[in-house]
UniProtKB/TrEMBL annotation:
One of its GO terms (molecular function) is chitin binding. Residues 52-74, 179-189 form the Glycoside hydrolase family 19 catalytic domain. One of its GO terms (biological process) is defense response. The active site is at E96. The lineage of its organism: Eukaryota, Viridiplantae, Streptophyta, Embryophyta, Tracheophyta. This is Chitinase 10. The keyword GTP-binding does not apply. Residues 1-21 form the signal peptide. Disulfide bonds join C52-C114, C126-C135, C234-C266.
């Protein structure tokens, strides 16, 4: 049973992430029972509103389908750790795609997954010095999908890991909802030395180096924010973007019935 599950997954997903799951020490609980459709819908109350450009794009089914390529996601540690990791992931993608504002119906933190593409991108996000993942003529690498994947340096390796040509066909991230969720999970699960993966941080597998300790980079939701956009947002007490991420997380952990864990903020962390 377990091995035929792995074999069928190998055709659909990167072998790397599936192999990583073999190290899993704890009992298997499907993501669909940790995040039921009802819970998903109460988290994303407005994603299919007419006002949301991503209306009807991000479905529960495509989220669950995408997680099957990443068996270690939400499946390490105690039930609390698993739920907290999933809540942290959903909170971060909510900030990236939010349609909320301070007086929005149901509050600002009920409006995640409202956008699928960056509005008014200020550039094509092409780093022409990157020769490993060269930009394809005429293609633009602005934010798309739940994590707002950006830059050729991310579209290239994400596509390679997930089985599409990210450099030639970046648009697919905004056109295929399963691929869109997979790019967000790929970003979440991938370590970029010396930067740990968001996953490792949320499940207690991150080991801080001396440099990390000197920079206050201790595990918690704030460190995940640091991984995602620390260069712009961390080390600034009271940053509104950081607080928006925290607001989503605080609402979601309540819906999952777990606590936030320590180090919510990155106000006193240096970026990587
Ligand atoms: C680490 O955090 C403390 C406050 O908790 C702060 O005073 C210190 O400046 C921070 N260190 C760095 C390197 O940001
Ligand atoms: C059919 C469809 O949704 N096409 C979209 C694919 O993505 C590009 C840009 O990312 C959009 O402009 C298209 O509308």
């Amino acid at each position: 049973m377990a091995s035929s599950f792995l074999i069928s997954i190998l055709f659909l997903c990167s072998t790397y992430f599936v192999a990583e799951a073999r190290g899993r020490e704890s009992a298997f609980i499907p993501i669909s029972s940790l995040v039921t459709k009802n819970l998903f819908n109460s988290i994303f109350l407005h994603k299919d509103d007419a006002a949301c450009p991503a209306k009807d794009f991000y479905t529960y089914e495509s989220f669950i389908h995408a997680t099957k390529c990443f068996p270690a996601f939400g499946s390490r540690g105690s039930l609390t750790t698993r739920k907290r990791e999933i809540a942290a992931f959903l909170a971060q993608i909510s900030h990236e795609t939010t349609g909320g504002w301070s007086t929005a119906p149901d509050g600002p933190f009920s409006w995640g997954l409202c956008f699928k593409e960056e509005i008014n991108p200020q550039s094509d996000y092409c780093d022409s010095t990157n020769t490993q993942w060269p930009c394809y003529p005429g293609k633009r690498y602005y934010g798309r999908g739940p994590i707002q994947l950006s830059w050729n340096s991310n579209y290239g390796p994400a596509g390679k890991a997930l089985g599409f040509d990210g450099l030639k066909n970046p648009e697919i991230v905004a056109n295929n909802s399963v691929i869109a969720f997979k790019t967000a999970l790929w970003f979440w699960m991938t370590e970029r030395k010396p930067v740990p993966s968001c996953h490792d941080v949320m499940v207690g597998r991150y080991v801080a180096t001396e440099a990390d300790i000197a920079a206050n980079r201790t595990a918690g939701f704030g460190l995940v924010t640091n991984i995602i956009n620390g260069g712009l947002e961390c080390g600034i007490p009271g940053d509104a973007r950081v607080n928006d991420r925290i607001g989503f997380f605080q609402r979601y952990v309540k819906l999952f019935n777990v606590d936030t864990g320590p180090n919510l903020d990155c106000a006193y962390q240096k970026s990587f």
